[in-house]
Design a protein that fits this description.
By secondary structure, the chain is mainly beta. It has a single domain, classed as Metal Binding Protein, Guanine Nucleotide Exchange Factor, Chain A, CATH 2.170.150.70. The protein is built from one helix and eleven strands; from the N terminus they run E-E-E-H-E-E-E-E-E-E-E-E. A five-stranded mixed beta sheet has the order 9-10-4-3-11. Strands 1-2-5 form a three-stranded antiparallel beta sheet, with no helix packed on it. A three-stranded antiparallel beta sheet has the order 6-7-8, with no helix packed on it. Bound molecules: zinc ion (2 copies).
Length: 134
């Protein structure tokens, strides 16, 4: 069923299910998402009104809210993997795309906060590719 999704963290101690549809998929390049991810951008799916069910490890999930902003991130306390977070302010469940075990069902909607993007992002398309560690 397309409105049912599953995910888990890297160490496997946390797993979840989502019932609902992803309406948007944003790659956020803001400075907060760079710090948070340790990379160029966050990749979050937005599911208004979706239902999140923790299959296991809910007690091992911590949620960090950056003071004075809407920036919120849930993560596994053991491995640090980004996990879904329910954001009442926007009435949506926010799901990190990389945490899904089921296929990400929609294409990226937009790259946002490009004004804050890391300077090296624009050169990524021109870098050599390898199927695995060269
Ligand atoms: Zn974990
Ligand atoms: Zn961001």
């Amino acid at each position: 069923m397309s409105d049912f999704h599953e995910g888990s963290c890297l160490c496997g101690s946390v797993a979840y299910e989502v019932a609902g549809s992803f309406k948007a998929f944003y790659l956020c390049h803001c400075s907060r998402c760079q710090k948070d991810s340790g990379s160029a951008h966050a990749a979050n799916l937005f599911a208004p009104g979706a239902r999140l069910t923790w299959i296991k490890g809910a007690e091992g999930v911590t949620t960090y809210r950056h003071e004075g902003t809407l920036h919120t991130r849930s993560f596994c306390q053991s491995c640090g993997s980004a996990m879904p977070v329910e954001m009442s302010e926007i009435n949506a469940l926010v799901v990190p795309a990389g945490s899904l075990n089921t296929k990400v069902p929609i294409a990226a909607t937009a790259r946002i906060y490009m004004a804050d993007a890391a300077h090296w992002v624009s050169a990524i398309q021109a870098t050599p590719e390898f199927p695995a560690l060269p």
